[in-house]
Write a structure and sequence with these properties.
By secondary structure, the chain is α+β, with helices and mostly antiparallel strands. It is 23% helix and 37% strand. Strands 1, 2, 3, 4, 5, 6 and 7 form a seven-stranded antiparallel β-sheet that branches. Strands 8-15-17-18-21 form a five-stranded mixed beta barrel. A five-stranded mixed β-sheet has the order 11-10-9-14-20, with helices on one face. It is globular.
Length: 457
C-alpha cells in the first residue's frame, strides 16, 4: 500500500471511529492516529554500538459526555475492537468529575485542510538512504572529532537518527486533517581525558530534509572544538559580571519564558508572568515569536493537536508581553480562544506546547558581544533545574569561558549563575545575529545580559 493510500485509509478510519463514538452516546468525540517509522544507529570508537529500526501505529480517542471526558488509546485498528474500546471509554467517562472547560474547540477555530499551505514537512529522500550510509555518516562524524586533535582519544558516541510518519486527526465537528512529516539528525560527543579528569561536549545537526543536514565532518569538528575549549577549567571569584549566552543557552532562556507564558501555567497562577499581560517584561531588544507556518522548520504544522488552524503568535514584542499561548482548555480557563498551541500524543490530553519558537536575531556578530565585555562570562552549558517559575528566581550550575578584555581567555566550570528572570530579561543589552534553523525548533542568537551573579571559588 502506498503512503498516500495508507494516509487516506487512516483518515477514513479516524472519521469512522468518531461517528461510532457518537452513535454509542458520546456528545462529541475526537480520534488521533499516529503512524510511522524510526531509525537510529549509535557508534562508539569506530564500531556500531546499537542499531534499531521500528514501525509503529497508535490511536488515541477522546470522548465527551456532558461536562465529562475520558481519553484512551490503542494499537488495535480492528473496528469491532475499537467499538468495544469506545463503549468502555464512555462508561469510564461517567465516573469522572465535571469540568466546565473541557470540550472540543469552537468550529470556527478549526483549520481548513483544503486550503492548508505547503509547509515542506516531508522529505522522501530520507527513506531512500541506505543503512550503510546512515552508519557511515555516524562513523564519519566521530572520526572527524578524533582527527581534529590527538588529545581526543575517547568518545561517548555518535548517532544518526531519522523518522517519518503521519498524524491524522478527526473530530465530531466535521474536521478531518492529516499531514506527513520527517526529520533527520546527527550528533557526536567526544571525550578528552586531561590529568585524570574527563571533559565531554557535543554538537549536532537536525533538519526536516537530508540536504539541510550539516556534513558529518563539520559536526565532528565542531564537537571537538567545543570539548577542547573545556580543558583545565578554573573557578572565578564570586561577583556580579556581564554574561554572554551562546545560542544554545539563549534558546534555553527562551524555553523558560515560553513556559512562563504558557496558558497552563497562567490559569494556575504558577508563573511570574500571570498578571503581566501588556506590560514591559524584557528589554526592547527582545521579540519572541512562535510560528508554526515556517516552511521546512522542525516545529511547523498545518494545525495543532486539536485541529485548530496554525497561526503566527508574537509572545513578546520589543519587550512587551503581548499574549499567552493556549490550548482550548487553558484558553477557556482564561476566558479566551486557543492560540493553536495544543500539543499531545495519542496517550495524553492536550497541553500547551511550542511550534517554531524563536527570539528574533539582532544586528551584532557574536564576536561583538564578547568584545564588549571587559570582565565576564561566556556561558556554553548549564545544568540543573533551579528556576522558581512563580517568583522568577534563577540559579543554575554552569560552565563556559571567562572573558578578559573582550577576548575568550580560559575555561571555567563548577560555577553557579544566579539572578531573577525579570532582571535577566530586562538586562539583555545586545542580541546577536547567529541563529540557524538546524539547531532545533526552539532557537535564539547569542545574548549579552548586563549583569548576573557568578558564584565560583
Amino acid at each position: 500500500m502506498s503512503d498516500q493510500n495508507q494516509d487516506r485509509q487512516y483518515a477514513d478510519l479516524a472519521a469512522e471511529v468518531v461517528r461510532r463514538a457518537q452513535k454509542l452516546g458520546a456528545d462529541h468525540a475526537e480520534a488521533m492516529i499516529t503512524s510511522g517509522s524510526d531509525f537510529s544507529v549509535s557508534v562508539r570508537m569506530g564500531e556500531i554500538d546499537t542499531l534499531s529500526e521500528a514501525t509503529s501505529k497508535a490511536m488515541g480517542i477522546r470522548v465527551f459526555k456532558g461536562k465529562k471526558k475520558f481519553l484512551s488509546y490503542t494499537s488495535d485498528f480492528d473496528l469491532d475492537s475499537i467499538e468495544r474500546f469506545v463503549r468502555e471509554s464512555l462508561a469510564l467517562a461517567e465516573l469522572t468529575g465535571d469540568d466546565d472547560a473541557s470540550g472540543l474547540p469552537a468550529p470556527e477555530e478549526l483549520a481548513d485542510p483544503a486550503t492548508a499551505p505547503d509547509l515542506a514537512l516531508y522529505d522522501p529522500a530520507i527513506e531512500t538512504i541506505p543503512t550503510e550510509k546512515r552508519v557511515a555518516m555516524a562513523l564519519a562524524a566521530e572520526k572527524a572529532a578524533f582527527d581534529f586533535d590527538p588529545r581526543i582519544t575517547n568518545s561517548s558516541g555518535a548517532d544518526f537518527s531519522s523518522s517519518e510518519g503521519t498524524t491524522v486527526l478527526a473530530n465530531s465537528l466535521g474536521f478531518t486533517g492529516a499531514y506527513r512529516e520527517s526529520s533527520v539528525g546527527l550528533s557526536v560527543a567526544p571525550v578528552v581525558d586531561a590529568g585524570g579528569k574527563k571533559q565531554t561536549d557535543y554538537w549536532f545537526s537536525r533538519s526536516r530534509r537530508v540536504a539541510d543536514l550539516a556534513p558529518p565532518e563539520e559536526v565532528g569538528r565542531e564537537a571537538a572544538r567545543r570539548v577542547l575549549r573545556r580543558l583545565d577549567p578554573t573557578k572565578p571569584a564570586t561577583r556580579a559580571v556581564p554574561i554572554v549566552l551562546d545560542p544554545l543557552m539563549a534558546a534555553g532562556l527562551v524555553r523558560m519564558l515560553f513556559r512562563a507564558a504558557s496558558g497552563d501555567m497562567v490559569w494556575r497562577k504558577q508563573t511570574f508572568l500571570a498578571d503581566r499581560l501588556g506590560q514591559t517584561i524584557a528589554s526592547d531588544l527582545v521579540t519572541i515569536v512562535d510560528d508554526p507556518l515556517r516552511p521546512g522548520d522542525l516545529g511547523s504544522r498545518p494545525f495543532d493537536a486539536e485541529g485548530v488552524r496554525s497561526r503566527k503568535n508574537v509572545i513578546v514584542e520589543r519587550g512587551v508581553l503581548r499574549q499567552f499561548l493556549t490550548s482550548t482548555y487553558s484558553a477557556r480557563r482564561l476566558g479566551g480562544r486557543s492560540t493553536g498551541n495544543a500539543s499531545r500524543g495519542v496517550s495524553s490530553e492536550p497541553e500547551v506546547g511550542p511550534s517554531n519558537l524563536y527570539l528574533e536575531p539582532g544586528p551584532h556578530d557574536p564576536e561583538e558581544l564578547i568584545a564588549s565585555v571587559a570582565d565576564g562570562l561566556y556561558v556554553t552549558s548549564m545544568m540543573g533545574f533551579g528556576v522558581n517559575m512563580v517568583k522568577g528566581d534563577f540559579s543554575r550550575g554552569a560552565a563556559g569561558l571567562w572573558i578578559e578584555n573582550g577576548k575568550l581567555a580560559h575555561p571555567v566550570a563548577e560555577i553557579t549563575v544566579a539572578g531573577n528572570m525579570n532582571d535577566i530579561l530586562k538586562g539583555i543589552v545586545m542580541v546577536g545575529n547567529d541563529i540557524h534553523h538546524t539547531w532545533g525548533s526552539v532557537r535564539a542568537p547569542s545574548l549579552k545580559i548586563a549583569t548576573l551573579t557568578v558564584s565560583g571559588a
